Amino acid sequence: MSKKQPDNIIQQFKITSRQYSDASIFMHEAIARKAKLTGSDHKYLGLILQHKELTAGDLSKLTGLTTGAVTGLIDRLEKKKLLKRQFTKDDRRKVIIVPNVENSIQLLQPLFSELQQRTADLIASFSITEIQSIERYFIEATTIMKEITKNINIKQND
Fold first, then answer.
1. Radius of gyration of the chain (CA)
2. What is the C-alpha to C-alpha distance for residues 46 and 31, in angstroms, rounded to an integer?
3. Which contiguous run of DSSP H or E holds residue 108?
4. DSSP E strands: which ranges in the chain?
5. From CA 47, how far away is CA 63, in angstroms rounded?
């Protein structure tokens, strides 16, 4: 299904994609600083918020972080009341992480409201076909990045 594209189009797409990636990182770092979080803690909190609950082991698998790094992350976010630890009755060593959605929204929503509105306006300016093409790119690019991240993490553990 690969179609040969002109080199200048591909090159411009790579430049634009890199600029988008950089702008995203810089924006999330700025939001994190404003929220008094580190950039990585802010992004990991976003990941945690996508789950009703998860174990520390689940978080380690999702992120590729060591169990020690996950413990530090949980400690920092718990101290800010953005999540809480629950221990299972069966095994007190097993930690369940429960995000504090209300506190997280209270902290982050004011920082994201303009972005969300302007992004919604931008998306509304595209046709359904254009949105589907953009979505396809993001889905497939995300799959590629996850595979590469997994391979890097496997090689690190060898």
1. 19
2. 12
3. helix 101-124
4. 54-55, 83-87, 95-99
5. 9
**Read out DSSP for 14-39?**
HHHHHHHHHHHHHHHHHHHHHTT--H
Look up the pTM and report it.
Answer: 0.81
Q: Which residues contact 74 (CB under 8 A, 6 or more apart)?
A: 56, 59, 83, 85, 95, 97
Question: Are 85 and 95 a contacting pair, CB within 8 Å?
Answer: yes
Instruction: List Cα–Cα distances, 76 to 39, 54, 79, 106, 132, in angstroms.
Output: 13, 17, 5, 17, 38
pLDDT in tens, 2-55: 577 788 999 999 999 999 999 999 999 999 999 999 999 999 999 999 999 999
